[in-house]
Amino acid sequence: MMERRQPIPVEEAIKKVHQYEKHGKVEWVPLKDSLGRFIAEDILADHDVPAFDRSPYDGFALRAEDTKEASSEHPVEFEVIDHIGAGMVSEETIGPFQAIRIMTGAKIPDGANVVIMIELTKTFEKDGTSYMSLKRPLKSGDNISRQGEEVLKGNVMVKKGTSVTPGVTALLATFGYAVVPVVKKPVIGIISTGTELLQVSDAMEDGKIRNSNLSMVYAQVLEAGAEPLDLGGVSDDFDKSYHAVKEALSKVDILITTGGVSVGDFDFLPAIYEKLGAEVLFNKVAMRPGSVTTVAAMPNGQLLFGLSGNPAACFVGFELFVKPIIYKWYFKEKPFPAFAEAKLTHDFPKANPFTRFVRAAFQFTGSQLSVTPTGLDKSSAVTSIAEANCFIVLPGGTRGFQAGDQVRVLLFQLEGGGSTCWMTN
Amino acid sequence: MMERRQPIPVEEAIKKVHQYEKHGKVEWVPLKDSLGRFIAEDILADHDVPAFDRSPYDGFALRAEDTKEASSEHPVEFEVIDHIGAGMVSEETIGPFQAIRIMTGAKIPDGANVVIMIELTKTFEKDGTSYMSLKRPLKSGDNISRQGEEVLKGNVMVKKGTSVTPGVTALLATFGYAVVPVVKKPVIGIISTGTELLQVSDAMEDGKIRNSNLSMVYAQVLEAGAEPLDLGGVSDDFDKSYHAVKEALSKVDILITTGGVSVGDFDFLPAIYEKLGAEVLFNKVAMRPGSVTTVAAMPNGQLLFGLSGNPAACFVGFELFVKPIIYKWYFKEKPFPAFAEAKLTHDFPKANPFTRFVRAAFQFTGSQLSVTPTGLDKSSAVTSIAEANCFIVLPGGTRGFQAGDQVRVLLFQLEGGGSTCWMTN
Question: Cross-referenced Pfam families, in alphabetical order (chains A, B) (predicted)?
Fold first, then answer.
């Protein structure tokens, strides 16, 4: 019964999983529904920006040559022959000593080659006609935003694999993407194993606990932008579990199970992988929590993530192994989270025989990142996942750490990690 | 036409807006739909954790008093009378020199007062009966996780105003919240003003630009967890604009307009506020971009945010003024974003007559935060919003900054700011 397992280093485990990267197909969604999705094709500028020569100020458009003689002593007067706001196009052509009043963003009228800001002019009426005068010579081309000076038509504006943020939607709108090519979401099935599990809506029962991993992993899948599929629970029964897993595989891109991967007497996942003909990539990782995390691959490359039934280990297992695979599905260039150093605010006296992932919260003191474990006392063990926004990563083979020590932190909520494993960044 | 406006400091503007904070009502949603929502009532533990005395290991439960004589030379033998996994409850009561094989998480059987880890025992069969022997005396109570040692029933587990993360869903599930009390989302109307605006699906037209602010603000509202309502565009016509705004107010909790707040000849918002009887809290802020940002309050306290039509200014205006008001609606204790210092990676030679918000991207070098403006050259002006994940905040009255200088950054994607204005943190 006491199966011997060979633990492998975290980094090696991550790399093994990433040999089975897959990418999603494209689908088109309305721009309004694209927030948080991932771009499936390079987004091109469909026009120059600006699309036409335009005024960067509220002012007057005119011919620079008419201002040659202007000075404080000898203001030059211009007849104001039109008045246009952004979006309007004047039908007039500016002739000698004529000007058109123009608002920010409006197209430079024909005949004009310069704009003067409204604050530098004086306006007045004479015989029912509007006039403007100015006191300085102007240089042709001044105060004109030139067509294409920011972007040329055909430029790549948003790269494939970029996640759609509000700022990205502004680009998509500018370039006419009323529907957006995004990567189809992978369907990620979740099977909960364990006789001890009650439904969330169940009353408490002796010896049992409510299934919190399902809701947590479901939310982690959503947060990673994928499509969770709750495939229900299976009890600690081999045949039922085997059939549930087998059936699930036909419905999903990736399958997650929670529980059942330990070496306990009722942990059937290892035997299920064997019967399915799946290759077990690893079934023990040199880390805490989550050492029993198991990942297997079907002959067609479909991944089965066997996460621990322990909630903290389950959470870590998802963030380390599943989330980057989802981001890779989306062509994300850097699918791994930001990895930084931080100053430890409290002692962490536990020794670390293996790489330890400590649930923690980071904060800034000036420009210095500091980090506090969220599970320092027993009463907060339950809430430590809820309060954590990063992991402190303590190397295996180290003794305790003290307040003030520099430690490495995996900022799993932040982008900015590498293109391969975060540990090697 | 050239209205005089009195600019007020950013901090004062933020404080004025927050005099009109409102809070949302409660609604109940299924746990699976609660990710990203905000908790409307304190979440209580509905049971102790652990809910019963349980085993933290795979091992054997037995009576400590029977182990008194155990030693390496004299192992003590126990009859194994049952075998339970997590979720199972043994019906047996342990008597002298009896043990029950017990898996992690299972309830301690009646009669037992200690658990020994499986690794410290030897199991064998004798005449068809299972036995276990051990070689050391045990202390009553060892290796038992006591009922309530982590959480006592009635404890507050998640505070009102907390946003639901995957970790929080685990707590909600544990304590039986199959439906979750969350704050009803505020409906945030968006009206686009400007004759120059084309729809995203429109072909380009001379003198016009596509409306990118609508999609961007719509996405910003979604990202802040609120309910956007696209109320269409109005052209630069006073009466139409007035009626559109008036009608909109009856449909929304908060109204955003984009454009029309400048002092250009076709900017009607100021006159609309006046005709509505709204109090203008400010119509000029000592900042760049976004100096024309205007906020007004109706007599009933309903807020009207007049954001600039310039995309960068519009983006900043939302993050500074609208987002924290949404978070306050959700009872968020600290509605302002994280504010930190960072090392500037590039020169930023522009002088800053007013507080300047520079779109930028942050990264970590070790534990040191550094920051790079995303709009350093003209060609990236269009993409600078899309690439930004923070603002560098340069104080008004300063000259340029150089690479290596420490600057302040507003990390608008990160929580962790203060309960009042971020500038005073």
Answer: MoCF_biosynth (PF00994), MoeA_C (PF03454), MoeA_N (PF03453)
